[in-house]
Amino acid sequence: MYIDEQDGDDAKLLGVYSTLEKAEERVRRARLQPGFADEPDCFVIDEYTLDEDEWTEGFVRVLPVS
């Protein structure tokens, strides 16, 4: 998934959950809410390890290929 806030995408963090099932339930509830209901397939659930760095070397912006 590519998110471009300058192009109108508006990324939101819905929460951090202890199980995949709880995260999936949150997505189900969000899909019923105004705004989120208009984009039912634009949800991402990622898994992370607690107490571990995710970004270790900085970042660069990669533009989509036209």
TrEMBL record:
Domain of life where this protein originates: Bacteria
InterPro entries registered for this protein in UniProt: DUF7336
Pfam families: DUF7336
Record-annotated DUF7336 domain positions: 8-59
Protein name as catalogued: DUF7336 domain-containing protein
Organism: Streptomyces carpinensis
